[in-house]
Design brief:
Blueprint lengths: L5 H4 L12 H13 L5 E5 L6 H13 L13 H8 L5 E5 L6 H11 L9 E6 L6 H12 L5 E7 L7 H4 L3 E4 L5 H14 L6 H11 L3 H14 L6 H8 L4 H12 L3 H13 L4 H20 L14 H8 L3 H18 L5 H13 L8 E3 L2 E3 L1 H22 L25 H9 L3 H16 L3 H6 L3 E6 L3 E6 L2 H9 L1 H15 L4 E6 H14 L6 H8 L12 H6 L2 H10 L10
Parallel strand pairs: 1-4, 1-5, 2-3, 3-4, 9-10
Antiparallel strand pairs: 6-7, 8-9
Length: about 575
Amino acid sequence: MTYQAFYRVYRPQSFRDMSGQTHVKRTLQNALLANKTTHAYLFSGPRGTGKTSTAKIFAKALNCEQAPASEPCNTCATCVSITEGSHTDVIEFDAASNSRVEEMRDIIEKVRFAPASARYKVYIIDEVHMLSTSAFNALLKTLEEPPTHAVFILATTEPHKLPATIISRCQRFDFKRLSSQDILARMQVVLEDIALPYDETALKVIAQAAAGGMRDALSLLDQVVSFSGDQLQLEDALLVTGSIGQDVFYTMTEALRDRNIAYVMEQLDALVADGKDPLRLSEDFITFFRDLLLMQTSAELHDLMELITPEPKFEELAKSFAQETLYHYIDVLAKTQQEMRFSHHTKIYLETALLKMAHAPVSPPVAVQGAVAVDPQLNDKVIRLEQQMMQLMQQLQGGNVKQAPQPQQPRQKAGGNTYKAPTGRITEVLKDATKENIQRIKNSWAQVMQQLQKSQSALLAEAEPVAASSSAFVVKFKYDIHCQMVADNYALVAMMTQQIAALTGMNVEMLCIPNDQWLKVREAFIRDHGLAKKPAQQEAEADVVEQPQPYIEDETKIASQEPHVVEAEALFGKDFIEVVDD
Protein backbone atom coordinates (compact mmCIF):
# COMPACT_ATOMS: atom_id res chain seq x y z
CA MET A 1 0.00 0.00 0.00
CA THR A 2 1.21 3.53 -0.77
CA TYR A 3 2.72 5.32 2.21
CA GLN A 4 0.39 7.85 3.82
CA ALA A 5 1.37 10.90 5.86
CA PHE A 6 0.82 10.85 9.61
CA TYR A 7 -1.87 13.52 9.50
CA ARG A 8 -3.94 11.29 7.17
CA VAL A 9 -3.33 7.99 8.95
CA TYR A 10 -4.02 9.41 12.41
CA ARG A 11 -6.95 11.64 11.52
CA PRO A 12 -9.56 11.23 14.32
CA GLN A 13 -12.52 9.05 13.40
CA SER A 14 -14.67 9.76 16.48
CA PHE A 15 -15.22 12.58 18.92
CA ARG A 16 -13.23 10.82 21.64
CA ASP A 17 -10.17 10.73 19.35
CA MET A 18 -10.23 14.51 18.85
CA SER A 19 -7.67 16.63 20.70
CA GLY A 20 -9.01 19.74 22.43
CA GLN A 21 -12.16 21.56 21.17
CA THR A 22 -14.16 20.33 24.16
CA HIS A 23 -16.83 23.02 23.71
CA VAL A 24 -17.49 21.87 20.13
CA LYS A 25 -17.57 18.15 20.92
CA ARG A 26 -19.92 18.48 23.90
CA THR A 27 -22.41 20.70 22.06
CA LEU A 28 -22.60 18.43 19.01
CA GLN A 29 -22.84 15.25 21.07
CA ASN A 30 -25.68 16.66 23.19
CA ALA A 31 -27.53 17.71 20.03
CA LEU A 32 -27.11 14.21 18.56
CA LEU A 33 -28.42 12.47 21.67
CA ALA A 34 -31.41 14.83 21.97
CA ASN A 35 -32.09 14.66 18.20
CA LYS A 36 -31.94 18.47 18.04
CA THR A 37 -29.51 18.94 15.17
CA THR A 38 -30.01 21.93 12.89
CA HIS A 39 -29.68 22.33 9.12
CA ALA A 40 -26.55 24.52 8.87
CA TYR A 41 -23.28 24.74 10.79
CA LEU A 42 -20.26 27.03 10.46
CA PHE A 43 -16.88 25.74 11.64
CA SER A 44 -14.28 28.52 11.79
CA GLY A 45 -10.75 28.61 13.17
CA PRO A 46 -7.03 28.38 12.32
CA ARG A 47 -5.70 25.72 10.01
CA GLY A 48 -5.11 22.22 11.34
CA THR A 49 -7.45 22.50 14.33
CA GLY A 50 -9.92 19.80 13.26
CA LYS A 51 -12.70 21.57 11.35
CA THR A 52 -13.00 19.11 8.42
CA SER A 53 -12.40 16.08 10.66
CA THR A 54 -15.19 17.21 12.99
CA ALA A 55 -17.50 17.69 10.00
CA LYS A 56 -16.89 14.11 8.82
CA ILE A 57 -17.34 12.67 12.31
CA PHE A 58 -20.60 14.61 12.69
CA ALA A 59 -21.78 13.36 9.28
CA LYS A 60 -21.10 9.75 10.35
CA ALA A 61 -22.91 10.23 13.67
CA LEU A 62 -25.95 11.68 11.88
CA ASN A 63 -26.20 8.75 9.46
CA CYS A 64 -24.88 5.94 11.66
CA GLU A 65 -27.14 2.86 11.81
CA GLN A 66 -26.87 2.97 15.62
CA ALA A 67 -28.19 6.56 15.80
CA PRO A 68 -29.13 8.44 17.87
CA ALA A 69 -25.73 8.14 19.52
CA SER A 70 -23.04 10.55 20.70
CA GLU A 71 -20.35 8.65 18.74
CA PRO A 72 -20.36 6.96 15.33
CA CYS A 73 -19.87 3.19 15.55
CA ASN A 74 -17.34 3.17 12.64
CA THR A 75 -18.33 -0.45 11.95
CA CYS A 76 -21.62 -0.21 10.04
CA ALA A 77 -21.63 0.08 6.25
CA THR A 78 -22.59 3.76 6.34
CA CYS A 79 -19.77 4.76 8.71
CA VAL A 80 -17.21 2.75 6.76
CA SER A 81 -18.21 4.24 3.40
CA ILE A 82 -18.14 7.80 4.82
CA THR A 83 -14.67 7.16 6.29
CA GLU A 84 -13.46 5.91 2.90
CA GLY A 85 -15.06 8.91 1.15
CA SER A 86 -17.29 6.80 -1.09
CA HIS A 87 -20.75 7.51 0.35
CA THR A 88 -23.00 9.22 -2.18
CA ASP A 89 -25.00 11.17 0.42
CA VAL A 90 -21.99 12.89 2.05
CA ILE A 91 -20.66 15.39 -0.46
CA GLU A 92 -17.37 17.23 0.13
CA PHE A 93 -17.14 20.45 -1.86
CA ASP A 94 -13.92 22.47 -2.16
CA ALA A 95 -14.93 26.11 -2.56
CA ALA A 96 -11.35 27.15 -3.31
CA SER A 97 -11.40 25.34 -6.67
CA ASN A 98 -15.17 25.54 -7.28
CA SER A 99 -15.97 29.13 -6.43
CA ARG A 100 -18.19 30.00 -9.42
CA VAL A 101 -21.95 30.31 -9.24
CA GLU A 102 -22.38 27.47 -11.78
CA GLU A 103 -20.94 24.88 -9.35
CA MET A 104 -23.14 26.18 -6.54
CA ARG A 105 -26.25 25.98 -8.73
CA ASP A 106 -25.43 22.34 -9.44
CA ILE A 107 -25.52 21.62 -5.69
CA ILE A 108 -28.77 23.56 -5.23
CA GLU A 109 -30.50 21.61 -7.99
CA LYS A 110 -29.52 18.23 -6.47
CA VAL A 111 -30.18 19.07 -2.82
CA ARG A 112 -33.94 18.66 -3.18
CA PHE A 113 -33.57 14.96 -4.08
CA ALA A 114 -33.90 12.55 -1.16
CA PRO A 115 -30.75 10.74 0.06
CA ALA A 116 -30.01 7.43 -1.61
CA SER A 117 -29.29 5.26 1.43
CA ALA A 118 -28.54 7.49 4.43
CA ARG A 119 -30.75 9.43 6.79
CA TYR A 120 -29.38 12.87 5.75
CA LYS A 121 -27.60 14.36 2.78
CA VAL A 122 -24.61 16.19 4.27
CA TYR A 123 -22.79 18.88 2.26
CA ILE A 124 -19.32 19.75 3.64
CA ILE A 125 -18.15 22.96 1.95
CA ASP A 126 -14.48 23.57 2.78
CA GLU A 127 -12.86 27.04 2.52
CA VAL A 128 -16.31 28.51 2.04
CA HIS A 129 -14.95 32.08 2.16
CA MET A 130 -13.54 31.53 -1.36
CA LEU A 131 -17.00 31.47 -2.94
CA SER A 132 -17.90 34.37 -5.19
CA THR A 133 -20.60 36.87 -4.30
CA SER A 134 -22.94 35.33 -6.86
CA ALA A 135 -22.37 31.86 -5.40
CA PHE A 136 -23.18 33.14 -1.91
CA ASN A 137 -26.37 34.72 -3.19
CA ALA A 138 -27.37 31.48 -4.90
CA LEU A 139 -26.71 29.49 -1.70
CA LEU A 140 -28.52 31.94 0.58
CA LYS A 141 -32.15 30.88 0.07
CA THR A 142 -31.36 27.16 0.13
CA LEU A 143 -29.30 27.62 3.27
CA GLU A 144 -32.17 29.43 4.96
CA GLU A 145 -34.88 26.87 4.11
CA PRO A 146 -33.29 23.60 2.99
CA PRO A 147 -35.15 20.30 2.70
CA THR A 148 -35.55 18.39 5.93
CA HIS A 149 -33.07 15.75 4.77
CA ALA A 150 -30.22 18.21 4.02
CA VAL A 151 -27.46 19.42 6.38
CA PHE A 152 -24.84 21.99 5.38
CA ILE A 153 -21.47 22.21 7.19
CA LEU A 154 -19.36 25.22 6.17
CA ALA A 155 -15.68 25.31 7.13
CA THR A 156 -13.44 28.37 6.86
CA THR A 157 -10.25 29.89 8.22
CA GLU A 158 -11.43 33.45 7.49
CA PRO A 159 -15.00 33.90 8.78
CA HIS A 160 -14.80 37.69 8.41
CA LYS A 161 -15.00 37.25 4.63
CA LEU A 162 -18.41 35.58 4.83
CA PRO A 163 -21.55 37.71 4.32
CA ALA A 164 -23.48 38.40 7.50
CA THR A 165 -26.56 36.89 5.90
CA ILE A 166 -24.78 33.53 5.60
CA ILE A 167 -23.40 33.58 9.16
CA SER A 168 -26.79 34.44 10.64
CA ARG A 169 -28.32 31.28 9.17
CA CYS A 170 -25.75 28.92 10.72
CA GLN A 171 -24.82 27.64 14.14
CA ARG A 172 -21.28 28.92 14.53
CA PHE A 173 -18.49 27.01 16.27
CA ASP A 174 -15.10 28.70 16.72
CA PHE A 175 -12.22 26.21 16.83
CA LYS A 176 -9.30 27.26 19.03
CA ARG A 177 -5.60 26.65 18.58
CA LEU A 178 -4.56 23.44 20.28
CA SER A 179 -2.38 23.65 23.36
CA SER A 180 1.16 22.30 23.38
CA GLN A 181 0.06 19.60 25.82
CA ASP A 182 -2.65 18.34 23.44
CA ILE A 183 -0.24 18.26 20.51
CA LEU A 184 2.43 16.56 22.65
CA ALA A 185 0.01 13.85 23.77
CA ARG A 186 -1.09 13.13 20.19
CA MET A 187 2.50 12.84 18.94
CA GLN A 188 3.31 10.43 21.77
CA VAL A 189 0.42 8.22 20.65
CA VAL A 190 1.76 8.21 17.08
CA LEU A 191 5.34 7.37 18.11
CA GLU A 192 4.20 4.63 20.48
CA ASP A 193 2.10 3.18 17.67
CA ILE A 194 5.09 2.97 15.34
CA ALA A 195 7.33 1.83 18.25
CA LEU A 196 9.94 4.58 17.82
CA PRO A 197 11.85 5.75 20.93
CA TYR A 198 11.84 9.53 21.35
CA ASP A 199 13.19 12.41 23.41
CA GLU A 200 10.30 14.37 24.95
CA THR A 201 12.25 17.62 24.56
CA ALA A 202 12.27 17.04 20.80
CA LEU A 203 8.48 16.73 20.82
CA LYS A 204 8.22 20.07 22.67
CA VAL A 205 10.28 21.70 19.92
CA ILE A 206 7.93 20.30 17.26
CA ALA A 207 4.84 21.39 19.24
CA GLN A 208 6.16 24.92 19.52
CA ALA A 209 6.95 25.09 15.80
CA ALA A 210 3.41 23.88 14.96
CA ALA A 211 1.89 27.01 16.59
CA GLY A 212 -1.33 25.30 17.71
CA GLY A 213 -2.04 23.30 14.52
CA MET A 214 -2.26 19.51 14.83
CA ARG A 215 -1.83 18.92 11.09
CA ASP A 216 1.35 21.03 11.05
CA ALA A 217 2.65 19.14 14.09
CA LEU A 218 2.05 15.72 12.54
CA SER A 219 3.60 16.85 9.24
CA LEU A 220 6.73 18.07 11.06
CA LEU A 221 6.82 14.85 13.09
CA ASP A 222 6.61 12.82 9.89
CA GLN A 223 9.55 14.77 8.49
CA VAL A 224 11.64 14.41 11.66
CA VAL A 225 10.94 10.66 11.84
CA SER A 226 12.11 10.26 8.25
CA PHE A 227 15.27 12.24 9.01
CA SER A 228 16.17 10.52 12.28
CA GLY A 229 17.46 7.00 12.72
CA ASP A 230 16.51 4.50 15.40
CA GLN A 231 15.53 7.20 17.86
CA LEU A 232 13.95 10.65 17.57
CA GLN A 233 16.43 13.04 19.18
CA LEU A 234 16.46 16.73 20.01
CA GLU A 235 19.13 17.56 17.43
CA ASP A 236 16.98 16.07 14.66
CA ALA A 237 13.96 18.15 15.65
CA LEU A 238 16.02 21.35 15.90
CA LEU A 239 17.57 20.80 12.49
CA VAL A 240 14.33 19.97 10.67
CA THR A 241 12.18 22.69 12.28
CA GLY A 242 14.86 25.38 12.17
CA SER A 243 14.52 25.94 15.92
CA ILE A 244 17.29 26.64 18.41
CA GLY A 245 18.12 24.69 21.55
CA GLN A 246 17.62 26.12 24.99
CA ASP A 247 21.36 26.00 25.72
CA VAL A 248 22.03 28.58 22.98
CA PHE A 249 19.50 30.95 24.52
CA TYR A 250 21.01 30.28 27.94
CA THR A 251 24.51 31.33 26.90
CA MET A 252 23.29 34.38 24.97
CA THR A 253 21.11 35.53 27.88
CA GLU A 254 24.05 35.15 30.25
CA ALA A 255 26.12 37.28 27.89
CA LEU A 256 23.38 39.94 27.82
CA ARG A 257 23.33 40.01 31.60
CA ASP A 258 27.12 40.35 31.77
CA ARG A 259 27.13 42.94 28.92
CA ASN A 260 29.34 40.68 26.80
CA ILE A 261 28.13 42.28 23.58
CA ALA A 262 30.88 40.78 21.40
CA TYR A 263 29.78 37.22 22.22
CA VAL A 264 26.10 38.04 21.60
CA MET A 265 26.86 39.52 18.17
CA GLU A 266 29.08 36.58 17.21
CA GLN A 267 26.41 34.06 18.22
CA LEU A 268 23.72 35.93 16.30
CA ASP A 269 25.90 36.12 13.20
CA ALA A 270 26.60 32.37 13.40
CA LEU A 271 22.91 31.53 13.78
CA VAL A 272 21.90 33.67 10.80
CA ALA A 273 24.71 32.20 8.72
CA ASP A 274 23.41 28.76 9.65
CA GLY A 275 20.08 29.65 8.02
CA LYS A 276 18.07 30.79 11.04
CA ASP A 277 15.42 33.43 10.37
CA PRO A 278 15.93 36.61 12.48
CA LEU A 279 12.17 37.05 12.81
CA ARG A 280 11.85 33.52 14.18
CA LEU A 281 14.81 34.19 16.48
CA SER A 282 13.07 37.20 17.98
CA GLU A 283 9.94 35.11 18.63
CA ASP A 284 12.03 32.41 20.34
CA PHE A 285 13.80 35.02 22.48
CA ILE A 286 10.43 36.39 23.63
CA THR A 287 9.30 32.85 24.52
CA PHE A 288 12.55 32.22 26.43
CA PHE A 289 12.21 35.38 28.55
CA ARG A 290 8.54 34.56 29.13
CA ASP A 291 9.58 31.15 30.47
CA LEU A 292 12.07 32.82 32.82
CA LEU A 293 9.25 35.01 34.18
CA LEU A 294 7.09 31.91 34.75
CA MET A 295 9.98 30.24 36.55
CA GLN A 296 10.37 33.33 38.77
CA THR A 297 6.67 33.42 39.59
CA SER A 298 5.91 29.89 40.76
CA ALA A 299 7.19 26.33 40.57
CA GLU A 300 3.67 25.20 39.68
CA LEU A 301 3.91 26.85 36.23
CA HIS A 302 6.60 24.55 34.84
CA ASP A 303 4.05 22.72 32.66
CA LEU A 304 3.35 25.98 30.78
CA MET A 305 6.97 26.47 29.70
CA GLU A 306 7.61 26.04 26.00
CA LEU A 307 11.38 26.41 25.55
CA ILE A 308 12.93 25.82 28.95
CA THR A 309 13.21 22.49 30.72
CA PRO A 310 13.14 23.03 34.51
CA GLU A 311 16.76 22.62 35.50
CA PRO A 312 18.83 24.18 38.31
CA LYS A 313 20.93 26.30 35.93
CA PHE A 314 17.84 27.91 34.42
CA GLU A 315 16.42 28.56 37.89
CA GLU A 316 19.65 30.34 38.84
CA LEU A 317 19.52 32.34 35.61
CA ALA A 318 15.94 33.42 36.34
CA LYS A 319 16.86 34.55 39.86
CA SER A 320 19.71 36.69 38.51
CA PHE A 321 17.28 38.97 36.62
CA ALA A 322 14.85 41.54 37.94
CA GLN A 323 11.34 41.23 36.58
CA GLU A 324 11.55 44.78 35.19
CA THR A 325 14.57 43.75 33.11
CA LEU A 326 12.80 40.74 31.60
CA TYR A 327 9.70 42.82 30.86
CA HIS A 328 11.95 45.41 29.19
CA TYR A 329 13.59 42.72 27.05
CA ILE A 330 10.20 41.41 25.90
CA ASP A 331 8.96 44.93 25.14
CA VAL A 332 12.04 45.77 23.05
CA LEU A 333 11.81 42.52 21.07
CA ALA A 334 8.06 42.87 20.49
CA LYS A 335 8.47 46.38 19.06
CA THR A 336 11.43 45.25 16.95
CA GLN A 337 9.41 42.32 15.66
CA GLN A 338 6.74 44.66 14.31
CA GLU A 339 9.36 46.73 12.49
CA MET A 340 11.06 43.64 11.06
CA ARG A 341 7.89 42.57 9.24
CA PHE A 342 8.19 45.54 6.89
CA SER A 343 11.95 45.37 6.23
CA HIS A 344 14.34 43.21 4.24
CA HIS A 345 17.18 43.89 6.71
CA THR A 346 15.77 41.91 9.60
CA LYS A 347 19.20 40.97 10.97
CA ILE A 348 20.12 44.62 11.53
CA TYR A 349 16.91 45.21 13.47
CA LEU A 350 17.57 42.21 15.71
CA GLU A 351 21.19 43.30 16.29
CA THR A 352 19.99 46.76 17.28
CA ALA A 353 17.45 45.25 19.70
CA LEU A 354 20.10 43.08 21.36
CA LEU A 355 22.41 46.11 21.72
CA LYS A 356 19.58 48.10 23.30
CA MET A 357 18.92 45.24 25.72
CA ALA A 358 22.60 44.94 26.63
CA HIS A 359 22.92 48.69 27.30
CA ALA A 360 19.72 48.86 29.38
CA PRO A 361 20.22 49.90 33.05
CA VAL A 362 20.47 46.82 35.23
CA SER A 363 17.87 46.55 38.01
CA PRO A 364 18.78 44.57 41.14
CA PRO A 365 17.31 41.07 41.24
CA VAL A 366 13.92 40.90 42.92
CA ALA A 367 13.93 39.16 46.30
CA VAL A 368 12.01 35.92 46.07
CA GLN A 369 10.25 34.69 49.20
CA GLY A 370 8.18 31.57 49.03
CA ALA A 371 8.37 31.65 45.20
CA VAL A 372 6.54 35.02 45.16
CA ALA A 373 8.51 38.06 43.94
CA VAL A 374 8.30 41.16 46.15
CA ASP A 375 9.02 44.41 44.33
CA PRO A 376 10.27 47.21 46.64
CA GLN A 377 9.01 49.93 44.28
CA LEU A 378 5.53 48.42 44.27
CA ASN A 379 5.61 48.24 48.05
CA ASP A 380 6.48 51.97 48.24
CA LYS A 381 3.58 52.81 45.93
CA VAL A 382 1.18 50.89 48.17
CA ILE A 383 2.42 52.81 51.23
CA ARG A 384 1.98 56.15 49.46
CA LEU A 385 -1.56 55.23 48.38
CA GLU A 386 -2.45 54.31 51.96
CA GLN A 387 -1.15 57.66 53.19
CA GLN A 388 -3.17 59.54 50.56
CA MET A 389 -6.29 57.58 51.55
CA MET A 390 -5.82 58.54 55.20
CA GLN A 391 -5.45 62.22 54.24
CA LEU A 392 -8.66 62.11 52.18
CA MET A 393 -10.55 60.52 55.07
CA GLN A 394 -9.32 63.25 57.43
CA GLN A 395 -10.35 66.00 55.00
CA LEU A 396 -13.84 64.53 54.60
CA GLN A 397 -14.29 64.38 58.37
CA GLY A 398 -12.65 67.74 59.10
CA GLY A 399 -15.83 69.84 58.78
CA ASN A 400 -18.02 67.62 60.99
CA VAL A 401 -16.60 68.00 64.51
CA LYS A 402 -19.78 68.53 66.50
CA GLN A 403 -21.68 65.53 65.22
CA ALA A 404 -20.77 61.95 64.48
CA PRO A 405 -19.52 61.29 60.94
CA GLN A 406 -22.26 60.15 58.62
CA PRO A 407 -21.18 57.84 55.79
CA GLN A 408 -24.14 58.78 53.63
CA GLN A 409 -26.60 61.63 53.58
CA PRO A 410 -29.51 60.97 55.98
CA ARG A 411 -32.92 60.67 54.42
CA GLN A 412 -36.37 60.29 55.89
CA LYS A 413 -39.83 60.14 54.47
CA ALA A 414 -42.33 62.68 55.74
CA GLY A 415 -45.63 63.41 54.09
CA GLY A 416 -44.99 61.25 51.06
CA ASN A 417 -41.63 60.99 49.33
CA THR A 418 -40.01 64.28 50.49
CA TYR A 419 -36.22 64.33 50.63
CA LYS A 420 -34.70 65.51 53.93
CA ALA A 421 -31.39 67.27 53.36
CA PRO A 422 -28.50 67.10 55.87
CA THR A 423 -29.07 70.63 57.15
CA GLY A 424 -26.62 70.28 60.04
CA ARG A 425 -23.78 69.33 57.72
CA ILE A 426 -24.74 72.12 55.28
CA THR A 427 -24.70 74.69 58.10
CA GLU A 428 -21.14 73.61 58.98
CA VAL A 429 -20.16 74.10 55.33
CA LEU A 430 -21.68 77.62 55.31
CA LYS A 431 -19.53 78.63 58.29
CA ASP A 432 -16.35 78.01 56.26
CA ALA A 433 -17.72 78.97 52.83
CA THR A 434 -15.61 81.33 50.73
CA LYS A 435 -16.11 83.10 47.45
CA GLU A 436 -12.94 81.58 45.99
CA ASN A 437 -14.12 78.02 46.68
CA ILE A 438 -17.54 78.46 45.09
CA GLN A 439 -16.02 80.16 42.05
CA ARG A 440 -13.65 77.23 41.53
CA ILE A 441 -16.55 74.77 41.75
CA LYS A 442 -18.69 76.84 39.35
CA ASN A 443 -15.86 77.19 36.83
CA SER A 444 -15.46 73.40 36.64
CA TRP A 445 -19.20 72.60 36.76
CA ALA A 446 -19.77 72.84 33.00
CA GLN A 447 -16.88 70.46 32.24
CA VAL A 448 -18.14 67.98 34.83
CA MET A 449 -21.62 68.03 33.26
CA GLN A 450 -20.15 67.28 29.83
CA GLN A 451 -18.54 64.11 31.15
CA LEU A 452 -21.87 62.70 32.38
CA GLN A 453 -24.31 60.53 30.47
CA LYS A 454 -27.48 62.13 29.13
CA SER A 455 -29.65 60.49 31.78
CA GLN A 456 -27.33 61.75 34.52
CA SER A 457 -26.99 65.29 33.17
CA ALA A 458 -30.80 65.51 32.92
CA LEU A 459 -31.06 65.07 36.70
CA LEU A 460 -28.59 67.93 37.21
CA ALA A 461 -30.00 70.28 34.55
CA GLU A 462 -31.91 72.32 37.17
CA ALA A 463 -29.15 72.12 39.81
CA GLU A 464 -26.33 74.55 40.68
CA PRO A 465 -23.63 74.87 43.34
CA VAL A 466 -24.46 77.61 45.87
CA ALA A 467 -21.81 77.36 48.60
CA ALA A 468 -18.44 75.69 49.08
CA SER A 469 -15.84 75.27 51.78
CA SER A 470 -12.50 73.50 51.69
CA SER A 471 -14.13 70.18 52.65
CA ALA A 472 -17.57 70.16 50.94
CA PHE A 473 -19.87 72.03 48.58
CA VAL A 474 -23.66 72.41 48.44
CA VAL A 475 -25.74 71.78 45.29
CA LYS A 476 -29.26 73.23 45.13
CA PHE A 477 -31.96 71.35 43.18
CA LYS A 478 -35.20 72.79 41.84
CA TYR A 479 -37.15 69.55 42.34
CA ASP A 480 -37.11 67.26 45.39
CA ILE A 481 -37.27 64.08 43.31
CA HIS A 482 -34.15 65.01 41.30
CA CYS A 483 -32.34 65.84 44.52
CA GLN A 484 -33.20 62.49 46.08
CA MET A 485 -32.29 60.51 42.93
CA VAL A 486 -28.84 62.13 42.76
CA ALA A 487 -28.22 61.76 46.50
CA ASP A 488 -29.14 58.06 46.32
CA ASN A 489 -26.83 57.46 43.34
CA TYR A 490 -23.58 57.06 45.26
CA ALA A 491 -21.64 56.09 42.12
CA LEU A 492 -22.68 59.32 40.37
CA VAL A 493 -21.78 61.46 43.40
CA ALA A 494 -18.38 59.76 43.69
CA MET A 495 -17.67 60.25 39.97
CA MET A 496 -18.56 63.96 40.15
CA THR A 497 -16.36 64.57 43.19
CA GLN A 498 -13.47 62.76 41.49
CA GLN A 499 -13.82 64.92 38.36
CA ILE A 500 -14.02 68.11 40.43
CA ALA A 501 -10.89 67.02 42.30
CA ALA A 502 -9.10 66.44 39.00
CA LEU A 503 -10.11 69.87 37.65
CA THR A 504 -9.74 72.01 40.78
CA GLY A 505 -7.48 70.02 43.10
CA MET A 506 -10.19 70.19 45.82
CA ASN A 507 -11.10 66.92 47.57
CA VAL A 508 -14.61 67.94 48.60
CA GLU A 509 -17.84 66.18 49.54
CA MET A 510 -21.04 66.85 47.58
CA LEU A 511 -24.18 67.73 49.60
CA CYS A 512 -27.60 67.90 47.92
CA ILE A 513 -30.55 70.05 49.03
CA PRO A 514 -33.89 71.02 47.39
CA ASN A 515 -34.58 74.67 46.65
CA ASP A 516 -37.26 75.22 49.32
CA GLN A 517 -35.11 73.68 52.06
CA TRP A 518 -32.11 75.67 50.88
CA LEU A 519 -33.99 78.95 51.24
CA LYS A 520 -34.88 78.09 54.84
CA VAL A 521 -31.34 77.00 55.75
CA ARG A 522 -29.86 80.08 54.08
CA GLU A 523 -32.28 82.46 55.77
CA ALA A 524 -31.70 80.88 59.21
CA PHE A 525 -27.93 81.01 58.79
CA ILE A 526 -27.98 84.68 57.76
CA ARG A 527 -30.23 85.54 60.69
CA ASP A 528 -28.26 83.56 63.29
CA HIS A 529 -24.89 84.92 62.19
CA GLY A 530 -25.97 88.53 61.69
CA LEU A 531 -25.08 88.68 58.02
CA ALA A 532 -28.19 90.69 57.00
CA LYS A 533 -26.73 94.15 57.63
CA LYS A 534 -27.41 97.44 55.99
CA PRO A 535 -24.84 98.86 53.59
CA ALA A 536 -24.01 101.80 55.90
CA GLN A 537 -23.32 99.42 58.76
CA GLN A 538 -21.12 97.24 56.53
CA GLU A 539 -19.12 100.29 55.42
CA ALA A 540 -18.63 101.37 59.04
CA GLU A 541 -17.42 97.92 60.09
CA ALA A 542 -15.19 97.60 57.06
CA ASP A 543 -12.90 100.32 58.45
CA VAL A 544 -12.60 98.56 61.80
CA VAL A 545 -12.76 94.78 61.24
CA GLU A 546 -10.92 92.88 58.52
CA GLN A 547 -11.97 89.40 59.61
CA PRO A 548 -13.30 87.32 56.67
CA GLN A 549 -17.00 86.50 56.78
CA PRO A 550 -18.80 83.37 55.49
CA TYR A 551 -19.72 83.85 51.85
CA ILE A 552 -23.24 83.08 50.57
CA GLU A 553 -24.24 84.26 47.13
CA ASP A 554 -27.22 86.61 46.85
CA GLU A 555 -29.25 84.86 44.16
CA THR A 556 -31.49 87.89 43.57
CA LYS A 557 -28.43 89.99 42.94
CA ILE A 558 -27.00 87.37 40.62
CA ALA A 559 -30.24 87.19 38.65
CA SER A 560 -30.36 90.96 38.32
CA GLN A 561 -26.92 90.92 36.73
CA GLU A 562 -28.12 88.89 33.76
CA PRO A 563 -27.92 90.97 30.53
CA HIS A 564 -31.61 90.72 29.67
CA VAL A 565 -32.56 91.68 33.25
CA VAL A 566 -30.26 94.73 33.18
CA GLU A 567 -31.80 95.85 29.88
CA ALA A 568 -35.33 95.45 31.25
CA GLU A 569 -34.46 97.51 34.32
CA ALA A 570 -33.05 100.28 32.10
CA LEU A 571 -36.27 100.41 30.08
CA PHE A 572 -38.90 100.12 32.81
CA GLY A 573 -37.09 100.80 36.10
CA LYS A 574 -36.25 98.45 38.98
CA ASP A 575 -39.56 99.07 40.76
CA PHE A 576 -41.50 97.51 37.91
CA ILE A 577 -39.25 94.44 37.42
CA GLU A 578 -39.69 91.15 39.29
CA VAL A 579 -37.28 88.29 38.58
CA VAL A 580 -38.99 84.90 38.67
CA ASP A 581 -37.03 81.61 38.59
CA ASP A 582 -38.77 79.20 36.20
